[in-house]
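Subgroup meeting minutes
Present: P.N., E.W., G.H.
Scribe: E.W.

1. P.N. recapped why we're keeping a running log of single-chain structure predictions: easier to compare across weeks, and new members can see raw inputs and outputs side by side.
2. G.H. added today's entry (90 aa).
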Amino acid sequence: MALPRPARHTVGMDKERLDKELARASDRIVNLILHSDLEWIDIEIEADKMRQRVLAEAPEKISTFERIYPARFQRIWRQWRAPRVRETEF
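Output recorded in log:
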């Protein structure tokens, strides 16, 4: 006979755990943008893994996710990785 699985502590603990996991995943993606030579498609794949995690764990938060993270990653990409246009020297 299998042992029963331990009950989760509280919903608040699960939310806290998910928040920490998302923060770590976001930090990881930002580090990939800043310190790797991955293409944008690879960054999108990593962001999609985060999205799938939110859908699986807290689907009610997907709209918040969509408002925050994709724009953040795109902004950081544009700021640090997009080709820069040289200003004309005077």
